[in-house]
Design brief:
Layout: E1 2-6, E2 21-26, E3 29-35, E4 39-43, H1 57-66, E5 71-80, E6 90-92, E7 95-97, H2 119-130, E8 136-138, E9 141-144, H3 153-159, E10 165-167, H4 170-179, E11 184-193, H5 204-228
Parallel strand pairs: 1-4, 1-5, 5-11, 6-8, 7-9, 9-10
Antiparallel strand pairs: 2-3, 3-4, 5-10, 6-11
Bound molecules: hypoxanthine.
Residues 77-79, 145, 150-151, 166-168, 191-192, 194, 207 line the site of hypoxanthine.
């Protein structure tokens, strides 16, 4: 079964309207999901929505695993660290940086996972994106910050040497998915240039407009992945 893990913007997706809701109990808390035919949708922020630094990532991934998901396609909103990666572009990352914010299922045992994103799965997701837009990149490094505030110009000046895009969720989810042997790939929606990458001042309005602009394409990609039964 394919699992789709997205942010609050995906709640407006027509795909999931009408899908029945279910609650799933996990050792890390209760999660609400929507269930389709051979596919499940989880809105990562929960209800009421929690800001990025308080998302129950362990509950989310444990719920998907418990429901029998075999792969997770995530949709993550990001800022761009590179002038050449314009807002409106989708990017399927193949690695991430998050040395300051590690969540784990291995709190009480000596287990050391070596994180590698599933390249074949990422490529399948990229191919599905490519069917709907030319503005998509395969590969790139996602840098995870803690949030909820965005980064300062000085922080971005450092981070731009570490990766291509910045967000607040992917590394936590990918780490926990890997710890439970669940392949995880992400469609990153580049919704803004990071603070200070361009001279035009960054505003939350700009981010909101781009989130809804990319949503139609992402919806088509998700439809393709669902009908193709990427499970
Ligand atoms: N920084 C962090 N997270 C984000 C950004 C950003 O610029 N844009 C969308 N999510």
């Amino acid at each position: 079964m394919l699992a789709i893990l997205g942010g609050t913007s995906l709640l407006d997706c027509r795909i999931f309207s009408g899908w029945p809701e279910e609650t799933v109990e996990t050792p890390f808390g209760t999660v609400t999901i929507k269930k389709g035919d051979g596919v499940v949708f989880l809105q990562r922020h929960g209800n009421p929505p929690m800001p990025p630094h308080r998302i129950g990532h362990r509950a989310n991934i444990a719920a998907l695993k418990g429901l029998g998901a075999s792969r997770i396609v995530a949709v993550n909103s990001v800022g761009s660290l590179k002038f050449s990666l314009e807002p409106g572009t989708l990017l399927v990352p193949d690695d991430f940086v998050s040395p300051w914010h590690i969540e784990t299922f291995f709190d009480d045992e000596m287990r050391f996972m070596i994180p590698v994103m599933d390249g074949n799965f990422a490529h399948e997701v990229f191919v599905a994106c490519r069917e709907h837009t030319m503005a998509v990149r395969m590969g790139g490094t996602y840098v995870q910050t803690i949030g909820p505030r965005l980064e300062t110009r000085a922080e971005i000046n450092i981070l731009k040497d570490f990766g291509d895009i910045v967000g607040m969720t992917l590394a936590s989810e990918a780490t926990l998915a890997m710890e439970t042997d669940l392949p995880y790939a992400s469609i990153c929606s580049i919704d803004n240039y990071c603070h200070g990458i361009v001279e035009t001042p960054l505003t939350m309005d700009e981010i909101r407009v781009n989130v809804s602009r990319n949503l139609a394409t992402i919806e088509s990609v998700l439809n393709t992945l669902i009908t193709r039964g990427l499970s």
